[in-house]
Specification:
The structure is a homodimer. Chain A is an alpha/beta fold. Chain A contains 13 helices and eight strands. In chain A, a hairpin with a 6-residue loop joins β6 and β7.
Chain lengths: ~325, ~325
């Protein structure tokens, strides 16, 4: 008996040391967040749903958190990253399409006018999407995205696009996962455009990425099966398409949702119009020095109705200027 | 030093004991499988992709295994379980639809003729699906399925449908998960029909269930958001729809796939027409005593082209009669 007790001492010490490490780390899981109402609301929520004695305790399998991507996890100014990809793909494909020199919206894109991409309205954008996002196999498209994102640079900062991710949001993803959450991306961007890099950049595997979806056709040629990308849109994963995408892919209702625009409003409503402790959070772009400042009047990432509703319902609104002591890791 | 060594002894003993338990369990992770070529092919595959020194080693995140449901994980005779659900729902809804007494295919269903459900061809089946699978919210539908499956019984065995699952396949699911696999269902059945019970019965959570998908519409009424089930079909997750469903939901190509019919053939091709060690397995229904015997001539679970291809490509074919010493846990 005595021997057992004595010999267990180092084990107790080990457990204590591990416990200490854990507590030490947990002391500030969100170091890039300033102390303030936003940070406190996050920590209070996580404590409330994970502490077993809490009346709001949620079992691990139900801890589903959904994140918008553009403007929520990485920068979306001056235009969406996927639009830069489209421009570069149009340029790369131009030699095979001499007619594009005079045909809009291709001509504007080739002349280097980024606004040309939207000048033709929805039809113009659709034409550019069809030209760059269909006709190839999913494997080929994945390689095109991977090759592009490995070298493309943001025009303002000169950083790789994958460095234009928000350090506080990376900490938040990690903090939630450390507390038993499964983290999903729910973006209006193309699902196949995100999957090649989300695991490396965000720690989110392909099966936890939800986005806009195009048609696919399975075919076998010369004994090699492939999925060909078709030009039709199956799901526009924006606005009221977001709860639809969430239900199709996850089949559970999130208990936490993170966005930055009116395109995320329905996802936040689906999450937070619900009994029990929930967290709905808007990233408000208020920092024109370190990032950008835009909301109600912006045509990219417009945040108008969502801002009103956040105030009305007491959702968390993060001011980048005031709540984040670091925006990008490269700062 | 001496004290540390001595005092570590119980810890070593504990580790050894845990190791012993683990080895003891691993000695036969598939007790309902007879020793034979099928079982050996499974164990050989798992060893090949999980042993780090193996030339076929696959990292954990890439260990994706996809399982058909009807006829692969649970029985599909004399008709699909979902058809029994449809019949019972039509009966439950009949008082609100007096016109169904004379209107096919409803009239046949109400008269208790299960073949009436298919007598009207695809249009008849579509009418029954629309009547029972659309118009309600996803939450309401989930409750209807949950209430039904808690009490409904199989007409031949008198067992709950959730007991009509194959014990050897439950062991296989568990064996793969214990070896780092993520297990998915990829079924032609309705995704919302399976999700209410797959976690409890198979250990597969809703977000790892892929099935046929209908339209959804997000709406908020009286401050309560809901997703309404629409009558249109978005994905028929059968035959060449299976690789499409896999790509949309998972975004990775499986390294193991399990089916029982020609409806699973494209999923197996997508999985096994690939370099590297792969496992494609067909459950062949050969036991008319303990289960059912059917293949090339059956209109449910027809296995014809798949059987030829399995022989040609040396895929694993499980004979229920010869390879399983137990079919159902209740035996």
């Amino acid at each position: 008996m005595n021997r057992t007790l004595r010999s267990a001492a180092p084990l107790v010490g080990l457990v204590a040391a591990l416990g200490f490490c854990s507590i030490s780390h947990a002391a500030d899981p969100l170091p890039s967040w300033n102390d303030g109402a936003a940070k406190r609301s996050i920590v209070k929520f996580v404590d409330g749903v994970t502490r077993e004695s809490s009346p709001d305790f949620v079992p691990v399998p139900e801890r589903i958190a959904t994140f918008d991507n553009d403007g929520t996890l990485w920068a979306e100014q001056p235009i969406y990253v996927q639009v830069f990809f489209i421009i570069d793909r149009i340029k790369a494909l131009a030699p095979q399409h001499p007619e594009w020199k005079t045909q809009e919206p291709f001509a504007s894109v080739l002349k280097g006018d980024p606004r040309g991409i939207t000048a033709g309205g929805e039809d113009g954008v659709a034409a550019l999407l069809v030209a760059t996002h269909s006709g190839m196999t999913t494997d080929e498209f994945s390689r095109q995205v991977g090759d592009w994102i490995a070298t493309a640079k943001h025009p303002k900062t000169g950083q790789p696009f994958t460095a234009m991710v928000y350090q506080p949001m990376l900490e938040l993803l990690e903090y939630l996962r450390a507390n038993g959450f499964k983290t999903f991306i729910v973006s209006g961007g193309g699902i196949e455009f995100m999957r090649p890099w989300t695991e490396k950049v965000y720690g989110i595997p392909p099966e936890q990425v939800i986005g806009s979806i195009g048609g696919l056709k399975f075919d076998i040629k010369d004994g090699r099966p492939a999925l060909f990308k078709l030009p039709n849109v199956v799901l526009n994963d924006d606005k009221d398409g977001k709860p639809v995408g969430i239900q199709r892919h996850i089949g559970r209702r999130p208990i936490a949702a993170f966005g930055n625009s009116d395109g995320d409003l329905q996802m936040l409503q689906w999450t937070c119009y619900s009994p029990g402790l929930r967290l709905c959070l808007y990233v408000h772009h208020t920092d024109d020095k370190r990032e950008w400042a835009y909301d109600r009047g912006s045509h990219i990432g417009k945040l108008d109705k969502g801002l009103d509703e956040a105030k009305l319902r007491d959702w968390t609104v993060v001011s980048i200027k005031d709540d984040w002591n670091k925006v990008f890791a490269f700062e």
